[in-house]
Amino acid sequence: IMVKVAGFFTGITLVLVAISIHEFAHAWMANALGDSTARYRGRVTLDPLAHLDPIGTLMILFTAVAGVGIGWGRPVPVVPGNFRKNPALGLAASSAFGPISNLLQAVAAAMLLQAARAFLPAMPATLVTTSQVLVVLAGVAALAAGGGLFYLWYRQRAAAGPSALGNFQWRVVESTPGTPWWKDEEILKQIVRAGMLGVLVFGFLAAPQSLLTSAVYVNCALALFNLIPLGPLDGNGILRGLLLASKGHWTLQAAAFLDRIQPYSATILFGLIFLEQILNIPIISLPVFGGTQFIARLLGV
Q: Which of 23, 174, 186, 276 does the annotation list as catalytic?
């Protein structure tokens, strides 16, 4: 049981870190191209809490129990008109840099995995067991603190009224000197950060090759899934930017078609996922997981 629980926390943390770096990459590239919108909103940072969406994170936790782990981070605000040069190519580049960052993470994890296989000795059983216990403790601490943040966020959201799906932020009621520690936003955030770091460090000590292998697969799957050309995903921005940049008659018509279906893209995506589960037809999983296996083999995993 301890191994499974430790593996659960390690897998969740890898997904959340991969999503955070993915969103940071979008923000960094947009800022580098001249659009400072994301930078002004504090998104050019590797802090996971700047990028994780409360509902998207909750979805990852619930679906991970079923062995899937589907969720989302906070979308990075991008204004293509602010790009210094070609706005269309800038949109494609800023959209593509998220999946590219995941592929780079996969390559880095694969290189570390090869080094671990070659040079890292087998961990003593006592160290492995102790590290697994510490993974669980760090994961529970991060989960509890994250639950506290979610509760405080929900309180403020309920008081402020409804907002658009996907536009959530980790903003809570301002703390006062008399606020209990479990209601203090900054303390809870620090516990979440320390817990996630602890899961990764102790997870590496417990099973370095397993953690690095999982990192390769998580990042490859995240990169390929985001290349699907539907509105919520990066593939839409990449395709739309390239179509607009070409300025051909049919490409402009295709871009206009993407704009027309944009309001329904999320519904179409979740409909395809639901249809796959009902009919057991690998509409999405075949290209995503098949491609993930192919890239992992290329990387020697």
A: 23
